[in-house]
Amino acid sequence: MCGIVGAVAQRNVSPILLEGLKRLEYRGYDSAGLAVIDQAKSLQRIRVQGKVGALLKKHQATPLNGNTGIAHTRWATHGKPSTNNAHPHICRDDQVALVHNGIIENHEQLREQQGASGFKFNSETDTETVVNGIYVALQTNPDLLHATFATIKQLQGAYALGVINKSEPGRLIAAKNGSPLVIGVGIGEYFIASDVFALLPVTQQFIFLEEGDIADIRCTDLTIYNAELKIVERPLNVLELTPDVADKAGYKHHMLKEIFFQPNAIAELLENRISDGQVISSEFGHGADAIFAQVHSLKIVACGTSYHAGLIAAHWMEEIAQISCQIEIASEYRYRKSVVPDNTLFVSISQSGETADTLAALQQAKKSGFLSTLAICNVAESSLTRASDLVFLTHAGPEIGVASTKAFTTQLVALFLLVIAIGKHNGLSNKQENMFVKQLESLPARVNQLLLHKDDIETMAKEFADKHHALFLGRGSFLPVAMEGALKLKEISYIHAEAYAAGELKHGPLALIDDDMPVIAVAPNNNLLEKLKSNLQEVKARGGKLYLFADETSAVEPAEGVYVININVVCDFMAPILYTIPLQLLAYHVAVIKGADIDQPRNLAKSVTVE
Ligand code: G6P
User: Fold this and answer.
1) Is ligand 1 within 6 A of the CB of residue 383?
2) Are residues 214 and 69 in the same domain?
3) Where are the alpha helices (DSSP H) in 248-355?
4) Using one digit for the tens of pLDDT, what is the confidence trace for 58-79?
């Protein structure tokens, strides 16, 4: 992953780069660095192990001043988090500085070649081989564009690069292949960044580079070349986004703010997507309804939390729309041969729209004979939305907390709309559609009700703080809810948590049950409740402690070793969305009690743009 930012201007670019890094921290935060060139042609760099905050402190003590610069926030792939491994990397003679997002797959081979010709390595990164390569190329042609072009020709893997050369102040070279990179267009200045959000304080005008593009950037001049070094035109996009989204609005953490924003996020998603009790199918893109009329089956592909949303949607799709629906993890799908039944719609789900595996899965799908491709995504100008035929935006607003919350619930609402839009062509009646739309419209108020349980859940969370493991149970469409609950807990509290289909308990996990293994179950009052209750008895009989979220009508009573929070959820098709909320709050409060870094948990990143 990693976030990169760069600038060429007629003013000191350090503050712009540092602000950009803060905004890119969701992409990684184990080390950070900044390099600038000033008019005296001196290249200066500062780097730190740790977060961007530490870099800001260092910069306050030793400010850098230059009109051309690059900066980086890292999520370690090759080489541990350390100052030496932090970017920008600088080559021999302090000639060239470079930031990189992605992975150079043939770095070992390049390292060997460069080592044999006398290069000493200062880091364990794959990136250092690129800056060395550029240095070598500059010896034959002292032009940064050509040196970068000659070097990237030798690279295998994915990269977004920003490169500066101390002999050429006022020039920045950017290259993109498989990792996101956007150019921001200012007045008499240009910027580059891993996403538009990083640059919103300085511009609203952007050019999205395409795969293989290399850009030659100076204050008043931008030339973009394609992979054959032919000049190409890329359109200018003017976005209407406000830069001010990163504040916590009085909440202690972004994650809590985002949990409490869910009623609004769902309401905003539904705005203009339903009318007179019906779903507006054209919201999925031009010609969507005609495509939906031909759909015989669906293939959903996603990663992480988005994958869990797909799992729930697959239940809905088969039960409500009666359309066969398969769901697969993107990193698995992309590397296997699969059969595509006729008239299958490919659906990718992604909060960021930049997840490398999901993007690769989409590329694979485009060659595989699907009827069409649809992206359910939260970021309008993302790689995924730009590469898909149909797009449905979840409009959840930027999600800052690494653990996904509002993005997940809005994905579920979007997927429910998709189920209706497709189901209409497969026997779903107007009456049913009206009923579902009513249920959807009731969601914001119902989520608000659930948020009132915050204090009870906080009390329950105290029971977990000293635990090392936890088991989550669910059945049917609530199994993915349990999976998401387990993922949330492990992501932010570092408690090992696993989710199981409750019926599978006796096939292994029951062996783990003792009074040190809390078992969390979601117990909606549905057709599987009695089955689930039997599974819970199996836990209780073995001394396990149960923590239940149940409907009042589920008649699950508290007892010794059984903690119940009645969440009063009418058990309709929306219930999986609702049962997610207390599990988010549980994970949040456990992590707060444990003193964990809620918004930036260790080792993780918000957007995973490497394999
Ligand atoms: C990372 C994030 C998760 C997210 C997953 C997929 O692991 O930390 O919150 O669910 O990537 O991301 P996407 O942007 O494709 O939904």
Assistant:
1) no
2) yes
3) 254-260, 262-270, 288-294, 304-316, 330-333
4) 999 999 999 999 999 998 888 8
